[in-house]
Write a structure and sequence with these properties.
CATH topology of the largest domain: Rossmann fold
Strand content: 5-15%
Largest sheet: 7 strands, parallel
Oligomer: single chain
Structural class: alpha/beta
Number of strands: 13
Shape: globular
Strand order of the largest sheet: 9-10-8-7-11-12-13
CATH architecture of the largest domain: 3-Layer(aba) Sandwich
CATH superfamily of the largest domain: 3-Deoxy-D-manno-octulosonic-acid transferase, N-terminal domain
Number of domains: 2
CATH class of the largest domain: Alpha Beta
Helix content: 40-55%
């Protein structure tokens, strides 16, 4: 596909884009805010020295925390700009960093919008997180002389097949990036097949997450409210369709005293999950009510933002959502960092290597269905020695794979030099700092 045809298709989709924003705003009014930014129109005068990092939504924003903290410490004369595509990502960034960073929406990939974004902010360097290859943005950055790096890159087979449809356009964009650093060997190989130059493997910065002490303290407080003697199963970041399966399996199992805490991935679904609980006659309380949990309560609906660490700290066993249905799964590393036994469904293609390594390390178990999930959770909760063993394995697993942030800082540093027209980029062959997770 040529760039002209790609851009023409974008313009043809313009009416749909407005309809999409309007439709999403029915549940999240925030989608109607800052509309100009989505087309490259920004207010105010940005600082002269700026590092730009793009984190699409909540997961990428939370993953970026170790890197943002290191950038702020290493380059105090620069401001960090966080760009997002979703209101929840923007809200998460505000909760995590407050006024220490700037925030905006990255515009849609229209050439005029990408150029306006770059002319307004004039970043020293741009960092794209995970799987964000915007063809016109890459080309505009190259023309503007802004080095653009794809970092913490992951490329599932599904995403690789989608990008492969763009053929030479994808190859051109990958080769126009200033540097690429993959999470795993498999990610690097898929990127290479799409046309990227040799890709170093830096690991996954999500392993470098530092658990805030206040989240641990909040978790202990939550556990006391749940009932200190009650076993707690956390279903974290569940996706649409999974809650119904879990509720059905819970009702069939009828485990005495079990408290299930369910935290939907997307906040706009909090109310619909609450309605589902009402319809099924399941006794539940909302976290937002901020009340002690009654002994007869079966489910706590985690309808709060920014408290996932606290939920993990408060549970005995954690199931990672998005994995019961073919959705690819969510991040298991935060649960492991808190030493929680992890249960995964059959579909973890978004985190293939991390999931397999966690299972091999004894930190996680895979289940094939919601029924098996509840049965396995019950078995673990009846065996404290198994929970202790998995907890120790989870902490060891999380600690073993730290260090990606420092490797990425090494990759970024040449582009931050004041006079460095042709920075030397570390390669897999040339630096022992970049290595596989395996």
């Amino acid at each position: 596909m040529t760039r002209r045809l790609y851009t023409l298709l974008l313009y043809l989709l313009l009416p749909y884009i407005f309809f999409h924003l309007l439709w999403r705003s029915r549940r999240q009014p925030e989608y109607r805010h800052h509309l100009g930014e989505r087309f490259g129109f920004y207010r105010g005068e940005p600082p002269a020295r700026l590092i730009w990092l793009h984190a699409v939504s909540v997961g990428e924003t939370r993953a970026a925390v170790p890197l943002v903290e290191r950038l702020l410490a290493r380059y105090p004369g620069h401001k960090v700009l966080l760009s997002h595509m979703t209101p929840t990502g923007r809200e998460t960034g505000q909760q995590l960093f407050g006024e220490r960073v700037m925030q905006c929406y990255l515009p849609y990939d229209f050439p005029f919008a990408a150029r306006r974004f770059l002319r307004h902010f004039k970043p020293k360097v741009g960092l794209l997180m995970e799987t964000e290859i915007w063809f016109n943005l890459v080309q505009s950055s190259r023309q503007a002389g802004v080095p653009l790096l794809l970092i913490n890159a992951r490329m599932s087979e599904k995403s690789a097949a989608r990008y492969a449809r763009f053929g030479s356009l994808c190859q051109e964009s990958l080769q126009s990036l200033a540097a690429v650093a993959a999470q795993t060997d498999a990610d690097a190989q898929r990127l290479a097949r799409l046309g990227a130059p040799p890709v170093p493997v830096a690991g996954n910065i999500k392993f470098d997450v530092a658990v805030p002490q206040e989240s641990i303290d909040m978790g202990h407080s939550l556990h006391a409210r749940f009932g200190a003697e009650r076993p707690v199963l956390l279903a974290a970041s569940t996706r649409e369709g999974e809650e119904a399966l879990i509720f059905q399996a819970l009702s069939a199992a009828g485990i005495p005293d079990l408290l299930t805490v369910i935290v939907p991935r997307h906040p706009q679904r909090f109310d619909s999950v609450a309605e589902m609980l009402v319809q099924r006659g399941i006794r539940f309380q909302r976290r937002s009510q901020n009340q002690p949990v009654a002994p007869e309560t079966q489910v706590v609906l985690g309808d709060s933002m920014g408290e996932m660490f606290a939920y993990y700290a408060a549970c005995d066993v954690a199931f990672i959502g998005g994995s019961l249905l073919p959705l690819g799964g969510q991040n298991l590393i935060e649960a492991a960092a808190l030493g929680k036994p992890v249960l995964l469904g059959p579909h973890t293609f978004n985190f293939t290597q991390a999931s397999e390594l966690a299972i091999q390390a004894g930190a996680a178990l895979r289940v094939g269905s919601a029924e098996e999930l509840i049965q396995t959770a019950e078995s673990l909760l009846r065996a404290p020695e198994k929970i202790r063993a998995m907890s120790a394995a989870a902490l060891a697993f999380a600690g073993r794979h730290r260090g990606a942030t420092e490797r990425l800082m090494t990759l970024i540093e040449p582009f931050m030099a004041e006079e460095e027209p042709n920075p030397v980029i570390p390669t897999m062959a040339g630096s022992q700092e970049f290595r596989s997770l395996s």
